# Entry
Amino acid sequence: MRAIPAAIAAARAERAGIISHHLVWVRAKDRETGAASPIGFWTGDDHREFTVGGASRLYYGAGGLLALDQIVQGVGMEVRQHQISLSGIAPEVELAIRGYEVRLAPCEIHRAEFSTETGALLAAPEMVVDGEVDAVTITTPQIGGEATVGMRVLSNAALLTRPLAIKRSDESLRARAPNDAFLQYAKISGSKGDPWGAK
# Structure
């Protein structure tokens, strides 16, 4: 069972309402150097720094993050998809999507809850999704339309669906068992068209 911070539990018990915002953090990669270039967006009105995991992160607001599908959480190994809609004209979104490589980049989604009376953050943002960016769709609108960027995020259970390539090569097998020649023809398997029974 997930532990709820005391301040959030008390605010919910009062039933006075809570202001909730989502924060999206993408650890994109620089296409030229390969260095990590993380960037964050949130549903708030202005740019703001949040402390997540003991580190301060800058999240861009003011309409960069337009919408986020309802987050469904549950127990199990099911691969969950989360659709995020970003503004196609926000300069920070342009930089992240067109300037960096975000496909397969690690992505975190946190929920931050604020007091309705003071507007203060009740507790540290809570992670609700830990996954990776699976696909990015850039929509170019007609005249008068709205430019959007769709980003699909898969939960980390998707990592369990990938085969381990290191277990399929002759070199990796011989590193573990030098006399095992089972995969010696793995590289050319399927490329030769010898008929059955031919020498």
